Amino acid sequence: YPTLYQCDLHKGLRIEISEQPHTMRQVTNIIIALQKFKQVRSTEFTDHELFNIIIENIVEGAVNLCFSALPTSNPPFISKQDRVIQCTVCDGLKKSLVQSQGTPNLLAVTLRGGNSNRSVGINLSTYTTPGCKATNGQPICLKIAQSNLYLACTKESGTSSQPHLILEDVKDEETLKTIEENDGMERFLFFRKVTGGSINTFESVKYPHWFISTSKNESMPVDMCVEEDTSRQKVFTLQDQKVI
Questions:
Q1: What's the confidence (pLDDT) of residue 93?
Q2: Distances in whole angstroms, Cα of residue 50 to Cα of each of 18, 121, 123, 220
Q3: Of all helices (H) and strands (E), which one includes residue 174?
Q4: Measured between alpha carbons, how far is residue 214 from residues 76, 85, 226, 236 in Å?
Q5: pLDDT tens, position by position, 9-53
Q6: Strand pairing of 149-154 and 164-169?
Q7: pTM to 2 decimal places
Q8: Which pLDDT belongs to residue 194?
Q9: Can you give the pLDDT at residue 33?
Q10: pLDDT at 67
Q11: Cα separation, 40 vs 10, whole angstroms
Q12: Quick one: pLDDT at residue 168?
């Protein structure tokens, strides 16, 4: 039987040491976790902060490390993971994302009183890929909960206009399970980067340096903007997170 040792280093922090053998993947995750937690000064976290640290650093780091050694001669591809995070989303001004009636857009709206139920649920799915550098962020797709509507960054056909964010109805969701380079499905992918434990940015994979953003004005469409655009909000927080 495995022997288990426990010791309390600080209030709120416990280390458990087991003699039970671990797989290489488990050892890798532990190393990544220790390296990341070294950078955190405090050992006291809220549940929300701890959740984000785990998702951002341990899960994302393990993905990048495990796939970095794969052969690169094959066409680049990414595969959708089974884990889905369901949440609501607020921008840096505390505006919530709500679905616009009659248009394929989301709006950023300040919800007060009993209107919080207007905030749309978002399903966030992550992908694994051999070609994604850790500095780019975690590849994800974003879907309106209980629907087939996905956020997509696209340009109008046959124009040189700037990219826009729309809600697109995906009839066959199986087409999003594996996405290859230049297969036309990259419009559904975004690089999610988390800083400070809870601040999220979402950069288009198809159009680098274009980010999901909101206007500083009320009830305006959620759209894309370049990184240098200071007139728009490009940071978001995820609320009411749960893994489904």
A1: 96
A2: 23, 21, 20, 32
A3: none
A4: 32, 22, 12, 10
A5: 444 445 455 555 556 556 555 555 555 555 554 555 566 555 555
A6: antiparallel
A7: 0.70
A8: 95
A9: 58
A10: 36
A11: 14
A12: 96
Q: What are phi and psi of 164, to 5 degrees?
A: -130, 160
154 is written with which tokens? 């696209």
149-178 pLDDT per residue, tens:
999 999 987 666 899 999 999 999 999 999
Decide: helix, strand or coil at residue 179.
strand
CB-based contacts of 30: which residues, under 8 Å, 6+ apart? 22
d(CA 32, CA 59) in angstroms, rounded, equals 9
Is pLDDT at 65 greater than 50 in this prediction? no
Candidates 241, 237, 238, 211; CA nearest to 224 is 211
Write down the H helix ranges in 68-157. none
User: Which residue's entry shows tokens 């979402």?
Assistant: 202
Q: Where are the beta strands (DSSP E) in the chain?
A: 4-10, 13-18, 77-91, 96-99, 106-109, 122-128, 138-144, 149-154, 164-169, 178-180, 190-195, 199-204, 210-215, 220-221, 223-226, 232-233, 236-243
The identity of residue 86, as a single letter, is: Q
Calpha distance 66→81 (Å, rounded): 14
143 Cβ partners below 8 Å, 6+ apart?
122, 123, 125, 149, 150, 151
